[in-house]
Amino acid sequence: MLHFAVWLRPGGKSGRNRDMEIGNPGAFLGFEGEACGPQARGVVLPVPYEATTTYQKGTGAAPLAILEASQQVEFYDEWLEDEARRFGVRTLPPVVFPGPPEALAEVLRQQVGALLDRERVPLILGGEHSLSLGPILAAADRHPDLVVLHLDAHPDLRDRYEGTAYGHGCVMRRVMEAGVRIHAFGIRAISPEERELYQSQPASLSAVSARRLLALSPVQRVEAVLASLPDGPLWLSFDVDGLDPGLVMSTGTPEPGGVDWFTVSEVLARLDEDGRRVLGGDLVELLPQPGLHASDFATARLAHRMLLTALRSWERHAS
After folding, report:
1. Which of 168, 184, 236, 317 could form a disulfide with 207 if both were Cys (CB 3.0 to 4.6 A apart)?
2. Taking the complete model, does pTM exceed 0.70, yes or no?
3. Is 95 a domain residue?
């Protein structure tokens, strides 16, 4: 059964109230009035789902933490020189789902598909990475040439992991089997099974490892990610453990040596400059921890940049 919980916006004109109660995070970026009304082009969908995490648990609290931290994010994005506020961003009630990940995938496939049909630009805030399957399939239903740009420390290409074929370690395997191409960057913890899959499925899978990126200059890192990115409309599926732990420490499966802030930001800026079509995205695997609010804030900043990239893409391709 699907449950919806309602999170109300905090009071105050600025939407930057630090005295918000836990469980009442407010709208993304603190938007009020017309900026988050029914006609808003951008849609943030919180999905506090956690069912298959295997190391440190707590990603179910991430959407609330990201929304809270977003109250302190500047509206103006200096990398894209624009504001999501210009398009409007509506924050939907969170999807609270008690069932298995394969059932959640169908729920989100329908819900995100309905948003895409209304020409809305969705950003899903997780939660664990298994929830990405449904939104990606919704985009692929409408764009058979879809490409997933996948930031992660792990390929998530196992056939089964910890007794399930639909958990966080298997999500990209199911995406690939649905005929969707995947281009990953930041990979640095990989099983022999997954390594063999990259070698045997070059038409479906490509990746730029963290080891390769770390050997390059900052500008070369961006070029390396983009050089082998296939053509086609994009869905952004970003797991925060793909980032360097010095940037986002709070994640359930941290791995040293990840992607830096310049690289991930410049990749998004280059997608914008190159006119790539970006349909939406998901941002997952933050594990909020008391006293480590910097990780929450960095994730909220990245969420804004991802959404703004997709909104600008919509504007370009709609005209």
Report:
1. 184
2. yes
3. yes
